[in-house]
UniProtKB/TrEMBL annotation:
InterPro entries: Acyl_CoA_acyltransferase, LPG_synthase_C, PG_lysyltransferase, tRNA-synt_2_TM. It is a multi-pass membrane protein. Keywords: Cell membrane, Membrane, Transmembrane, Transmembrane helix. This is Membrane protein. The keyword Chaperone does not apply. GO terms for cellular component: plasma membrane.
């Protein structure tokens, strides 16, 4: 069972219009009204007692009814507050919950004769019903069950903790232990910030009220957050998609194309099946990786399907690491903005040589390492013996240590795997011991792209230069004419900032990047790549206007520069 809305109106703007400046602002308006109603309900429930307003009800109903009404107003306010952001993102599940809460708020505020809040609730309910077709975004069906299970467990646990507190400190309750039912009522009211009927000594009253309110907020906030947060599907590249992508990659002009065979990416195809886009959803951002794969004439169809999927789930579409050609295709199909991220270093094998003054540093380092007894071997993965594969895997893990494995758009995420028989491995040994290795993945029919670079920290300085030079020297025998090396982020800023006459803004930006290079390999990668006299190929980030902070954060998370712990609540894991 899913949250798909089958009656999407034909009057809604098209995909491209909706993602542009002309998109409907109704969800934002409704979200604003929801925020206002939520705050007013919470303030009214907590700071204006219902008992005086419900005096006519108290004559015929028990006092617990008035307490329950106050509690319901506060709960409705808190839930509306949590729903506002999901409504802004057009979530249909949030709309359904908001309609119920708005109706409840309307009834409660009408009973207490609160004119202002009654009008606000009526306006909210009208807007929700009037513009119901604006809230069509599909939710993740798995999140509702995780959220429901978490809510049940948290409610039971919080109630038990509250009852235990009253039982353990029963001497602080005037009259002693009041019994289970009065205690449960007091605990449940306290969980929404309402004072119950138990009379507690002042020294314990504040402590108990704070604990119960904290438990109540946790019981409300965590499940609602889990139910309404942007779903993050668990990507899984199917064998069928893998096979279809490999047939397209043989003719792919994109050096990053092979990295889309990562197992943690999903694929969306054009209707013709001639082009595809690999992506992952991170923090509500549907993040495409590199260029679309396949026939460039079929790219618009894949882009349209990609945007439709993003719209259906209310995800923010974006592209990380695309070429200028692909970036142009995206910006033509939409009104997205493009930001240059940096440059990829590409070496032409035919023109590469260690001769000349520009290559003096590399030539000297390679010569010194070779004189120290280092040797290299260049081999396809399919030609590695099982023992050699096992050794490479062990070395890669040992040399990485506790560092987070990074990569999304420019890394495959596996080493010497049977899935990649045409990958090229360059191994450096000294006295029969592996001291470093590189792995290159195929790039079309005549290229390879650097994927993994690992070295023993005790190895001679210059072993990486030796490995790259050995790879370039072996390329002619491998039938390879072009080699993509590392990506240099913000290369142009480094280059322009150190030129004579660079402006103050450029110099400042360079100084910021140099400072950041203490934690991230920015300047060092640029200077290392520049040693091999490559051609620089720009890569871009493409994103909807106004969404750059969110897209940038998602990109950093996807590349594992930012990592978040997984939320685990009483056995319920929320995959962040």
């Amino acid at each position: 069972m899913t949250d798909r809305v089958s009656h999407r109106p034909s009057t809604l703007p098209s995909t491209f219009e909706r993602l542009g400046a002309s998109a409907s602002r109704v969800p934002r308006l409704v979200a604003g009204v929801v925020y206002a109603a939520a705050f007013l309900n919470i303030i009214s429930g907590l700071f204006h007692s219902f008992r005086s307003r419900f005096s006519w009800v108290s004559d015929v109903l028990p006092g617990a009814v008035t307490n329950a009404a106050s509690a319901l107003v506060v709960v409705a306010g808190i839930l509306l507050l949590l729903l506002a952001n999901a409504l802004r993102r057009r979530k249909h599940r949030a709309w359904r919950a908001a309609v119920v809460l708005a109706a409840l708020s309307l009834v409660l505020n009408g009973l207490r004769l609160h004119v202002a809040l009654t009008l606000v609730s009526a306006l909210l309910l009208y807007l929700l019903v009037r513009y119901r077709r604006e809230f069509y975004a599909v939710g993740d069906p798995t999140t509702r069950w995780r959220a429901l299970w978490a809510a049940v467990l948290l409610f039971v646990t919080s109630t038990a903790i509250g009852v235990m507190l009253v039982a353990v400190y029963d001497r602080e309750v005037i009259g002693g232990w009041p019994g289970l039912w009065p205690t449960l009522q007091h605990v449940w009211l306290g969980m929404v910030g309402i004072e119950g009927d138990l009379v507690v000594r002042s020294r314990f009253d504040d402590y108990l009220a704070a604990v119960l309110l904290g438990l109540g907020l946790m019981t409300l906030l965590v499940p609602v957050f889990m139910a309404l947060r942007a779903p993050r599907p668990q990507p899984d590249l199917s064998p069928e998609d893998d096979a279809r992508l490999r047939s397209l990659l043989e003719r792919s002009p994109d050096s990053l194309g092979y990295f889309n065979l990562r197992r943690d990416k999903s694929i969306i195809w054009s209707d013709s099946g001639k082009a595809a886009i690999a992506y992952r959803v991170v923090g509500g951002v549907m993040l495409a990786s590199g260029d679309p794969i396949g026939d460039p004439e079929a790219w618009p169809g894949a882009i349209a399907n990609f945007l439709d999927e993003a719209e259906r789930h209310a995800w923010t579409p974006a592209v990380l690491g695309c070429s200028e050609r692909a970036g142009t295709a995206w910006t033509r199909a939409t009104d997205f903005a493009a930001l240059e991220l940096g440059d990829e270093a590409v070496v032409d094998v035919a023109s590469f040589s260690l001769e000349g003054r520009a290559m003096r540093n590399v030539r000297q380092m390679v010569g010194r390492v070779r004189r120290a007894g280092y040797e290299t071997d260049v081999v396809r993965v399919r030609d590695l013996a099982p023992s050699e594969r096992f050794q490479l895997l062990a070395d890669a893990a040992a040399w990485r240590g506790s560092e987070t494995e990074r990569g999304f758009s420019m890394a495959l995420g596996r080493v010497a795997d049977d899935l990649d028989p045409d990958a090229v491995v360059v191994i450096a040994t000294c006295d029969g011991v592996v001291r470093g290795f590189l792995q290159f993945v195929p790039w079309g029919r005549d290229g390879i792209s650097l994927d993994v670079m690992r070295r023993d920290r005790g190895a001679e300085a210059g072993v990486n230069e030796l490995l790259i030079v050995s790879a370039l020297e072996a390329c002619r025998d491998l039938g390879v004419s072009r080699v993509s090396l590392n990506f240099a982020a913000f290369r142009t800023i480094f280059e322009r900032g150190e030129r004579l006459g660079a402006g103050p803004i450029t110099r400042f930006m360079r100084s910021v990047l140099v400072f950041a290079s203490r934690w991230f390999q920015l300047e060092s990668l640029y200077r290392f790549n520049a040693k091999f006299q490559p051609a620089w190929v720009s890569r871009f980030l493409v994103y909807p206007g106004g969404s750059l902070p969110r897209v940038a954060l998602a990109s950093l998370e996807a590349e594992a520069f930012l990592t978040w712990p997984k939320m685990r609540i009483l056995g319920v894991t929320d995959h962040a």
